[in-house]
Amino acid sequence: MQPFTSKVVDIVKSIPEGRVMTYGQIAACAGSPRGARQVVRILHSLSGKHRLPWHRVVNAKGEIALTDGESRYMQEHYLRQEGVETDGQGRLDLERYRYWPESETGV
């Protein structure tokens, strides 16, 4: 596994229940601020194998980015089960639910 991929997997695994991170935020934490699309590909190909909480990753606007109806529904369902409120259009309040790993906040 490439170092960036390994970092992305570790970061996604660290997102606590009821919190979310954005694709770009994960890419930046993993060392590639412009690697959001890579994060998408990694989640798509490795979520099952590594049991990643893929549903805790949203786009920069705080929206569910999946367009496939069933996957989109499942992501919203999983988030709601964890207490993350969405508006029915797949949008959530990033200010309220965004997770900031210690390494990103400088703590």
Verbal overview:
The structure is a single chain. The protein is mainly alpha-helical. The protein has helices at 3-14, 23-29, 36-50, 69-81, 94-97, 102-105, and strands at residues 21-22, 57-58. It is built from 6 helices and 2 strands. A two-stranded parallel ribbon has the order 1-2. The longest helix is centred in the middle third of the chain and has 15 residues, at 36-50. The model has no long low-confidence stretch (mean pLDDT 92).
Write the layout of secondary structure elements.
Elements (H helix, E strand, L loop, with lengths): L2 H12 L6 E2 H7 L6 H15 L6 E2 L10 H13 L12 H4 L4 H4 L2
Parallel strand pairs: 1-2
Helix pairs in contact: 2-3
Short account of what is shown:
By secondary structure, the protein is mainly alpha-helical. About 50% of the residues lie in helices and about 5% in strands.
Could you list the spans in which at least 5 consecutive residues all have pLDDT below 50? none
Kindly give the count of domains.
Answer: 1
Query: Which sequence of SSEs, written as H and E, runs from N to C?
Result: HEHHEHHH
Q: Which class best fits the helix and strand makeup?
A: mainly alpha
CATH topology: Arc Repressor Mutant, subunit A
Helix percent band: 40-55%
Radius of gyration: 13 Å
Named at the architecture level, the CATH assignment is: Orthogonal Bundle
Largest beta-sheet characterization: 2 strands, parallel
Strand composition percent: under 5%
C-alpha geometry: globular
Per DSSP E runs of 2 or more residues, the count of β-strands stands at: 2
Note the total helix count. Answer: 6
Mean pLDDT: 92
CATH superfamily: Winged helix-like DNA-binding domain superfamily/Winged helix DNA-binding domain
End-to-end distance, in Å? 28 Å
